[in-house]
Amino acid sequence: MAEDHPDVRVCTFGYPASKFKKWIKKELDIFELAKLATEILCGKGVCKRPIIFVTHSLGGIITKLLLNHCHGSSDEQAAALAARTLRVMFLATPHSAPPLPQVVKKELPGWSSSHITALSGETTVLEYIRDTYGKYVASNENLKNVAYYESQKLSGVVQVVPMNCANPGISGTDPIPIEADHINICKPQSKESAIYTSVNRHIEQAKKLAADTPELSDHDTQIAAEGYSEKADYDRRDLWEKMNAADRENRYTYANSRQNSFARKYMSLGLQPGTRSDYDLLLSEVEQRFQAQVYFPLVCKGATEEEIDNAVQEKVIEPLANKKIGATTFGATNIQSAIYFLTEQCHIRWDTER
Predict the structure, then answer these.
(1) For 15, which of 24, 63, 144, 300 is 20 to 30 Å away at the CA?
(2) What is the pLDDT of residues 255-272, one digit of tens each?
């Protein structure tokens, strides 16, 4: 999807369960997760441009809570996030309580959790979220909701979110069936898959609406200027620690040389806002491509060093090399240097241990 929409900034929100347990020793409830997501998105400047949410399962509930929380908020950034949301796409999100927990506990015990319990017919939390979200939807004339549900049973046992539960109860939003189970509905096999084609169509529609509605964007702020001159607040390890943790210590000398070269050039551009903006755009695109094409699908899943290196070359370096970004054309070495600079600045990493 990121390749089909190079003009769109793609962000992901989620957490690996194994790391999450180490962090907090218990599950955050969905209301806490929504508040956390709000802070992260606002901190990343997502509220400054038109927004499209593509959500799966519980992620759709968290997104509704997030937007409910932001709507009417006294926090200007949070309020802007709600106001600039143009599409919310729900992939197998239960908007009303499915008869799920009893089946899951019996047939798929590994799925049982406090989140599953919250979806049971014994609670009214989903109805409350649905009703509150409906009020937000009514206030945002630019917002369109799209809902999908799985038509196949998970592990041949249970249809986790059937059609009636996938209905968000919003006028004009009828759930669309997708020939997949609850897990694979968000994993299209190709760009020809029904879910990919549909989501892509709605993204195109939202982009056109955004282009025709300039007041949706904050033109006083350079969205690409992520503050790359400052280290990110998370994972404050330096370049050596990150390379060593990823068993790439043999590359440290070269990586450090490249990132230092890039840093000197980047920092010297403070009085040249046009060129500095081009570098910010480059760094933003490198970060997005690395996260979407390398880190989450490969590093997080234990891919080999060769697989990761090939992906960096094919998915990050080659698509950007000799491509004009703004008024500047960057070579392959510039792209590689930018990757190591972002590693040093704590925006990307090569391991999953933190």
Answers:
(1) 144
(2) 999 999 999 888 877 656
**Residue 42, SS3?**
helix
**Residues 286, 190: Cα–Cα separation, whole Å:** 24
Range 17-216 has CATH code 3.40.50? yes
Among 130, 127, 100, 128, CA closest to 115? 100
State the pTM of this model: 0.60
Q: Which of 331, 329, 351, 327 is nearest to 261 (CA)?
A: 331
The length of the chain in residues reads: 354
Tokens of 87: 């599409």
Q: Across the strands, what pairs with 325?
A: 328
pLDDT in tens, 277-314: 788 889 988 998 999 999 989 999 999 999 999 999 99
Q: What is the pLDDT of residues 150-174, one digit of tens each?
A: 999 887 877 888 898 899 999 889 9
Based on DSSP, count helices (H) and strands (E) in the chain, helices before strands: 15, 6
Helix (H, G, I), strand (E, B) or coil at 112: coil
Calculate helix-pair angle for 332-344, 252-267, nearest 10 degrees.
90
- As a dihedral over the C-alpha atoms of residue 210, residue 216, residue 221, residue 226, rounded to 10 degrees, the angle is -60
